[in-house]
Amino acid sequence: MSYPGYPPTGYPAFxxxxxxxxxxxxxxxxQYPYPTGFPPMGGGAYPPAPSGGFPGAGGYPAPGGYPAPGGYPxxxxxxxxxSYPGASPGQxxxxxxxGAGFAGYPQPPTQSYGGGPGQIQIPGGFPGGQVPxxxxxxxxxxxxxxxxxxxxxxxxxxxxxxxxxxxxxxxEVLRKAMKGFGTDEQAIIDVxxxxxxxxxxxxxxxxxxMYGKDLIKDLKSELSGNMEELIxxxxxxxxxxDAWSLRNAMKGAGxxxxxxxxxxxxxxxxxxxxxxxxxxSEFGRDIEKDIRSDTSxxxxxxxxSMCQGNRDENQNVNHQMAQEDAQRLYQAGEGKxxxxxxxxxxxxxxxxxxxxxxxxxxxxRMANRDLFSSIGREFSGNVENGLKTILQCAQNRPAFFAERxxxxMKGAGxxxxxxVRIIVTRSEIDxxxxxxLFAQMYQKTLSTMISSDTSGDYRRLLLAIVGQ
Length: 468
Prior knowledge:
By secondary structure, the protein is mainly alpha-helical. The chain is 48% helix and 0% strand.
């Protein structure tokens, strides 16, 4: 099939981190001269999903509980994905499209969040029991909260470009905060949490011009642990951060499959192409070859498909195709002995998100079982998680990240790598919506959970980014 509208405009990126004690030369010389010895980061500690689905109680609800395509907030205009933060109005998030569905990979699907018939219920992973596979009349049980009306305004980051920005002044503030005995961490927090990623790059350049020193090296010498990790992540350009995270997820012994899924299954075509190019230019490696050497089987094939950046990004939904795809998927799974995995890979890797939503609805009507449930019955392990991530993002991308954040902090210990990665990468895109969904899904605020799971300057900076 053809893949119209490539490449769309780009959009921020994602992470994973280097394991401890490896490759002191990372990264090679290039346009992102980050110092060696970035703090160890796990990224692979995300708790295993239960057999029936992603972490949580029974997976995401059936497509039947979701409104018809055509009302998710903040989808970009037809033919493109959202631009990087700081783009001019109309090029990024917050401009609802006139048509149904959405055009890019990383936007939250276009469904209406609150108000009107068929109000959306929160996707799965709710504490409180199994989500039924079908809801009469497309309505969720009453105990699942509706989206706040504010979510109809489109996606929104908690960090916006600072007005009256002065890179020279900010560089002076940071220099003073690190000079002499001790470090004024609050001054550093005030600057980095109130500047966009592009503005932070300008501060870094101004610092080197003014003082002949590398700001990142100075910060590394003054900070440590999770605070250092978070600050350095904030100073990485988004595309580099994604490429770098993928490299470190596959570097050394073991592979952080959750990081690969989180990045490659949630990005737009243009973002993926930018990541692939950055991976090659910065690390001198071919990401597809690295994936092939670190993964295998149907999971490997799914990730290779994602690396092509060739998903259909047309907003229009072909309902006849949705019906045919639903039938095709049923015959490849529930309707036969064994599973035709390549059929699932083809449909989920190539169809647009609005088209996938229509397919999920058609499948639920035809099979009397939602597609999430069928994938859980037919697949296991990493490929199951990858396929479900695609469907979860097609339905409600901010809810997917809200769930990831919850499970990074739930239980004993904290998966700080996942926490840092998602907070930083969503901070200029849709963290406002992620926060709202987090509170609805788990009956506590994101800030409350961060406060109870972190401490010190690390906590203060995270809360400054998240906002109260």
